[in-house]
Amino acid sequence: MQLLIKNGRIITATDDYYGDIIVSAGQVTAIGRKLSVPSAKVIDAEGLLVMPGGIDPHVHLDMPFMGTFSSDTHETGTRAALHGGTTTVIDFVLQQQGHSLREALDEWNERAYGTAVGDYSFHMAVTDFNANTKAEIRTMIEQEGITSFKTFMAYKGALMIDDRQMTGLMQEVKQHGGMVTVHATNGDVIDYLVAKHLAEGKTTPLYHYLSQPEVTEAEAAARFTDLANYTGCPGYIVHLTCEGALNAVRNATRRNQKVFVETCIQYLLLDASKYDKGFESAKWVMSPPLREAKDQETLWAGINQNLVNIVATDHCPFMWQQKLMGEHDFSKIPNGHPAIENRMELLFSEGVNKNRISLNKFVEVACTNPAKIFGMFPRKGTIAIGSDADIILFDPNEKHTIAAATHHMNVDYSAYEGWEVTGKVKTVLLRGEIAIDKGECLVPRGYGQFIKRNKVNGKI
Ligand code: DUC
Ligand code: ZN
Ligand code: ZN
Ligand code: ZN
Predict the structure, then answer these.
(1) Which among 12, 41, 171, 441 would be 20 to 30 A from 413, CA to CA?
(2) By alpha-carbon position, which residue is closest to atom 7 of ligand 1?
């Protein structure tokens, strides 16, 4: 079926104009003024913003972690994402130490294939880099379309790799046209502080925060950036939260090195005062933890300085019952918070409406840069002839309130309960199908497609 979207204000990362869009066979086939197609279904976008579908490149769906699983499956998580205007997500495949990348990928394919509602891709988290895994990197990039490799500088014994493995991985990934991404915090220092606090009987969520001070992130960000520079490997820091870490990246620009930076919506909007609420603070126990007001300012400024390239979520929800696993020991609280559904509307409301970022910048960091940096552009991340018709119709003035009672994520609380938002996703197209309209999801389980990604070169 052909669609004709009429009279919308079309926003991309670079443009802002009024026009009509024709969608045929899942793609945008024409953009112009006063278009007409006699047989097409017409969608009236008068008064609405017409923007590319959001891309959240950092989500953990159905992930085994800290003795449990994150509570959104590929089905519920991608459906909630669609409700919030995010049409594509990149989820993490987690290698188990002592096992192959292939085994991990098979496991994740089984979970996501035929269940995801929205489009998805995978990063490969390399937790054990050795001669066997080295030989798998090329296959992942060239055959599987998985071109980004996630590393952890923390979570020793489960996920962390050391600097020897990091250097080897970077050399291998660079050679085949991929990128290394990193959870950049110093795991040894954090482990020391966690053990010290617990030994002193300090077991509340506040000590989760106090065990991951800014220096643990700034040090790791600088070390990762230096190793990426030495090896020449494209590098990307996930969920960067603070001034110290951003300064490491800023310093690297002086030698003309580009390291991509992602922050997450929570680090822009929430701060460490959330850790003063007794055990309720477990809702915001995530790693890295929330920071201070000065870090929020640094991150908003960093977006406008082109140092922060992407706003993601690190969506990793756990039910309250799961959070209670750490009731007597903060180090056992499953790390993570739900946001996959809220990212676009919150970023619009707090960013565009409060004049911290422009409309074009909003599209750039929420849609276009994720596609460009991770090898999906121009199929995804923009509105252009030949692109997938992943399009959202957005009312910039409609007010609503975030609440667990009305969200679609499979989690029994909201990290943003009661937050007043201005701006609402009204209609969502995914590959030319109306996926969301009037608050209903109209595409079935299994509609989501796996998106193979292209090689990357570390430039945008
Ligand atoms: N941090 C989280 O909060 N959750 C998932 C993994 C991570 O690094
Ligand atoms: Zn095995
Ligand atoms: Zn992380
Ligand atoms: Zn994560």
Answers:
(1) 441
(2) 287
Give the pLDDT confidence of 9-54 residue by residue, as tens digits: 999 999 999 999 999 999 999 999 999 999 999 999 999 999 999 9
Q: Which ligand is nearest to the CA of 104?
A: 2
- List residues, by chain if needed, whose CB lies under 5 Å from ion ligand 2: 99
- In the numeric block, the tokens 């990357």 are attached to 456
Cβ atoms within 10 Å, residue 188: 13
Residue/partner pairs of 411-419 with CB below 8 Å, 24 or more apart: 411/71, 411/72, 411/317, 411/318, 411/319, 411/338, 412/319, 412/320, 413/283, 413/320, 414/338, 414/342, 415/266, 415/270, 415/283, 415/284, 415/337, 415/338, 415/339, 416/269, 416/339, 416/342, 416/346, 419/346
- The residues placing their C-beta within 5 Å of ligand 4, an ion, are 314
Atom number in ligand 1 closest to CA 285: 3
Q: Which residues of 93-131 are buried (b: 16+ CB within 10 A; e: fewer)?
A: bbbeeeeebeebbeebeebbeebbbbbbbbbbbbbbbee
Q: How far apart are CA 287 and CA 72, in angstroms?
A: 18
Domain 54-373 classification at class level = alpha beta
Ligand 1: atom nearest CA of 63 is 5
- Residue 1 banded pLDDT, cuts 50, 70, 90: confident
pLDDT value of residue 212: 98
Closest atom of ligand 1 to CA, residue 183: 8
- Per-residue pLDDT of 161-212, as tens digits, reads 999 999 999 999 999 999 999 999 999 999 999 999 999 999 999 999 999 9
In this predicted model, what pLDDT tens digit does every residue of 88-107 receive, in sequence order? 999 999 999 999 999 999 99
Q: How far apart are CA 399 and CA 87, in angstroms?
A: 22
The CATH code belonging to domain 3-51+382-396+423-441 is 2.30.40.10
Mean pLDDT confidence for 119-142: 98
Within a 10 A sphere around the Cβ of 351, how many other Cβ atoms?
24
Nearest in space to 184 (alpha carbons), one of 221, 151, 135, 159: 221
Ligand 1 mutation pick, 152, 240, 316, max ligand atoms within 8 A of CB: 316
Q: Is the pTM of this model over 0.80?
A: yes
| C-alpha pair distances (Å), 366 with each of 324, 327, 336, 345 | 33, 35, 20, 11
Q: Which residue puts its alpha carbon closest to atom 1 of ligand 1?
A: 287
